[in-house]
Batch of 3 targets.
Target 1
Amino acid sequence: MRLGLLRARYERRVLSPLGWPVPAGARRASAREMATLIETARERGYSRTAKGYEPAGPDAWCAIVAVLYESTPEPAWICIARQSGGGGTYRVDIAPADFARLRRLRAAQKDALIQQLMVGDRRGGSPRD
C-alpha cells in the first residue's frame, strides 16, 4: 500500500480544466474494477458514486480522468468515468492509491474514445454547422 501512495505522490501532473493539478493521463477500469471502485466509494462515504452505472457488457471498460482533489471525508480524486461502447458518463470519487493502481489508457483506446465522443454520440442526427 505504501508503494502505491509514493507512486501517486510523485506522478506527473497536468492542470485540469478547473485549473487544479491532477494526475496526467486517462486511466482504464474494467467492469469488475469499476464495480469495486464504486463499492469502495460507498464504504468510504464519498458523495460521488457513479449513480446509475450499469456495465454495457462483460467486455465493457471505463476511461477515467481525475478533475479535482477532495480532502473530505477522506482524500480522493473527483473523477469522470466514460463507459466504452457508447455508455454513459459518471462521476466517481477514487482514493489516490486506488487511482494510481489503475492501468493507463492505451493509445488505441484513446483514439476509440475520441472517435466516440466526436462522432458516435450524435444519435439520430449529424453535427450542426
Target 2
Amino acid sequence: MRNFVIIICLAIFCSACSNQIGRKTYEISTAAPDIVTSAEMRWNGDILFTGVYCATAPMPELATKHTARMYSNNRIYLGTVYYPNNLMVAVAFSKFPKSITSEEHIAAQFELNSKAFASHSIVQPDQHHLSLNQTDFGSTIRLMHKNIEAHPEGGPFPLIINTYSTLNDSFQSMAVRQIFARDDDLFEVAAIQTKPEAGFTVSEAEIESQLNSFVKDLTSSLQRCTRSMRERIKTSVGKRPFKYSFSR
C-alpha cells in the first residue's frame, strides 16, 4: 500500500504547483533522444542546457543511460542519469518570478517543506529530514527521504515524492536532494537508491554516504560550470529556447 504524501514542485511560479499534500501529474512535453552507454560507446558525463546550466555527472564511466525531458508545457526540465544497482541521479530546474530574489524564493520553499514534513512526521516519523545549508549559490535546502518510490505514478522522481506506507522498518529506498537558486532559475540535484539487487550487500549507512557524495559532487560541478558559463553567455530576456546537448 502506498501513501501519496509530499509533492515538491519546482515550478512555484505556477499557482497550481505549490507544495501540497496530494497527487499531481506531470506530462512530458518535449524529450531528447536517450543516451545509452556501452563498452563501445562511452559517455563523458557532460550535460548542458543552453544558457541555463552545465555540469559533469559523477562517475560517468559507470552510467548506463541518460535521459532529458521537459514537463508542464516546457516549464520544468529534468535530466536523469542511471547507474547499476538501482541508483539514479537527477538535475531539475524551472523559473520563478523575477519580482522576488533567489534567497527569498529558497526561504519560501524551505517554509513550505517544513510545514509538509511536520504534518507527515506525525504519521511516519524519521522518514524525512530537512535542513538549510550554504553552497556556492547561497542558501540551499537539503532533504533526505527514506522509503520513497523511484518511479512514482503521475511523474518522475524528484518532481513527485511518493512514500511507501510500510508497517515495518524494512529498507526500500533512500534519497538525498538539494534545492538552490541563481538569478530566476531554481535548481534541484537529487539522487535515489532503491533496495539493492539480490546478492549485493550494502548497509544503509553506505548508501547514504554514496548518495551524499553524488549529490555534493554534482552540485559542485553544476555551480562551478554554470557560474563560468554565465560569465561568457548573455542570456536573452523572455523564453529560452529548448536546447540541450550531450557529449559522448
Target 3
Amino acid sequence: MVFILLCGLCWLAWWWAHPALFGPPGNAVGTQSTVGTPVNVSITFPGAPAGVDEVTIEDIAANVAENTSGATISFSVCTMDPAQGVMGTYEGDLHDVCLDVSPTTDARLSDSDYVMMTTVATQAGVLDVPSFDFTYRYGWERLFRRGTEETAIRVTVTVP
C-alpha cells in the first residue's frame, strides 16, 4: 500500500512539473536576412492554446545548433490587432507591426500575443535554432503547474 501511495505521489510530482503546452519539435521556418537587420520570427501561435485560461512565461532559451553569423538572439511578446493577419516572420522593427512589444519575462499571454524571437546578424553566416526551451507556469485552474518544455519550431536564418 505504501508503495502504491509513493508511486502515485511521484507521478503527481512529475505531472505537476512537466506541463505540455506548446507541443513537440516539428515545424520549421527558414529565411534570409542582411547583416545588421533585425529578423523577427513568431515561435508560438497567438495567445495561450485552446483550453488554457492562463499561462505566464518565466524564461525562454534558444537551443542553438549553429551560429556562424554572430547573431544576437532576444525574445519579446508582440501584441497584434486581432484584425491583422497571422504573424510569421518580419524583417525590421517589431514596433512597426505590433500594437505593443513587451519583454517575455513574466509575460501573461493574451489572445493576440505572439512570442517572437528577434535576431540580428553581425556577419555573413547561418543561425540555426532547432528548438526553444520555454519555462512557464499555469494559473489556478491548472494548480499553478510549472515546468520547462521544448517547443515545436526550428528557425534557420541565412545571411549571404
